[in-house]
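Support request, please re-run this one:
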Amino acid sequence: VSGELQLRRGFEIQSNSNVLVVEDVITTGKSALECLELVNKNKANFVPLTPLTFLKRAKDKNVFGTKMRSVIKVADKKNIEDVVGQQFEFATQILEHGLIPIVEPEVDINCSEKNSAESFLISALEEELDKLNSEQKIILKLTLPEKNDFFLNLTTHRSVVRVCLLYTSDA
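Re-run finished. Output below.
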């Protein structure tokens, strides 16, 4: 209501209760901060859970891997490099826990400069992949490109297990 975060479906935060805030998609972090404000406003206890905790629990349960997803909406070289860099930072943490990272920098199919965004993306991916050693394996999950075989060279990189392409009926 009026741009203010509210709980839905009858949820409420009881005073003195323990509240775990889990952010599944991080963009600006604004939603997570608003959740924390709501926890504080209701005099509840925030229970921190870091991504590293999830990784340890995943490994203990024999999970194969986990993914990070970002959506690229504009063909901005610097922002795309930053997004890919951030994804590979998380990928390194995932690798350190013995899991396979699934790197998913998705170019929005409605991006008006999708070809340019894909060109910036492949350059950023190649740069980050070359920083990995041959023992560090990842999976790439990418939007179906405008040009046939555009991501083909990524399939033979020493650190790439698979390249998966996202398909949408809108494409």
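The first strand starts at residue 18 and ends at 19. The radius of gyration is 19 Å.
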